[in-house]
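Quarterly update, task 2.4: heme C-bound model.
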Amino acid sequence: MKINNNWILILILVGLTSAIIYKAFDTYQKPRIELPNNTHTAWIAPSLYIDRSLEGEERKLVIYGEELIANTSKYLGPNGSVAHITNGMNCQNCHLNAGKKTWGNNYGAVASTYPKFRDRSGSIESIYKRVSDCMERSLNGVTLDSNTKEMQAMIAYIKWVGHEVQKDSVPKGSGIKPPEYLDRAASPLNGKIVYQNKCQSCHGSDGQGLIAADALSYTYPPLWGKNSYNSGAGLYRLSRLAGYVRDNMPFNQSTHESPALSDEECWDVAAFVNSQPRPTKDLTSDWPNVSKKPVDHPFGPYTDGFNETQHKFGPFKPILEARKKQSNKSKSS
Ligand code: HEC
Ligand code: HEC
């Protein structure tokens, strides 16, 4: 009888131990965090630390591309080591975390959607053309030849950032999403107060930002004046500036999920910033099809009957509605 009891005890012990080992192994195998699926949650950029598929020269080029996007001015700015062709801002000032930040005007949709037709130029644009546009407008400078190492590196990096995104799809959280349109025009006067309370501490009372100690870039980039983006830049459109600010400014305080500013404050501060002086660009060859101008493109002529002031500050809803009617009419006739 004694022996039998011991056997039962041993059997129970063996059973328990195997159950514990099995359970531990099972939990170990399951990923602890559920990785988001691109179709439901916002896009998350790949990481060079994890991605070992890039090797040798290709990897070096992508790393150099990221460096150029993050510290553009160090290479291409007024005191740049490669050329002096831009205004001293970095691509990263507007494409946060080198174009990898979700909702931070990232590059998630570039590899998947370019080359594509764009109404601004009325042509099919390559990634090279799109980067050149930001160099000539946002960085108020001159572009690089497409076969320079710097241009090749930036393009290689941008392609790598979006390499996991399915062709033709635009992941959630890429580019800029404008706040809800207001029922009134955005007010530069209200915006000035928002600026003084929420922006001035970093971007300065004169909007000129703060130059870093090494004089190679900005600690806080300028929002207007001679070193800022020009009148042909994306941010000169109110919806782009308001949307960028909503999800990202004040820096490190706002997120898409919990913005520090109300939608009204975003539109108003954008109206104030874009009423200040800045470099201009000849835009006569932009929007060859005038009817394709976005509602917030502030330069005429237009085919919708609204004037430049309304196209600059809104209200934008009446313009959108008039355009919808116009296109319904042309469809039915
Ligand atoms: C002053 C701000 C600013 C700076 C600086 C800037 N950009 Fe941009 N960029 C924008 C805005 C605004 C857009 C349009 C975003 C939108 O409409 O969703 C844009 C769009 C782009 C796009 C197309 C994105 C897409 O999804 O279609 C690329 C590529 C790009 N920028 C690259 C660059 C590079 C490279 C640099 C530096 C050489 C740079 N940008 C500097 C503001 C900026
Ligand atoms: C705590 C400091 C801080 C505050 C406050 C702040 N910003 Fe910024 N802002 C930054 C920094 C830093 C960057 C550049 C981020 C980078 O390079 O990674 C930036 C970038 C920008 C840019 C894009 C680059 C440019 O210069 O055009 C805009 C536009 C902008 N801020 C607008 C605003 C507005 C509007 C407010 C107020 C609602 C604001 N910021 C408040 C620190 C700040």
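Highlight for this quarter: The pocket of heme C (ligand 2) is lined by residues 90, 92-94, 96, 198-199, 201-203, 220-223, 229, 235, 241, 244-245, 249-251, 261, 269, 273 (CB under 6 Å).
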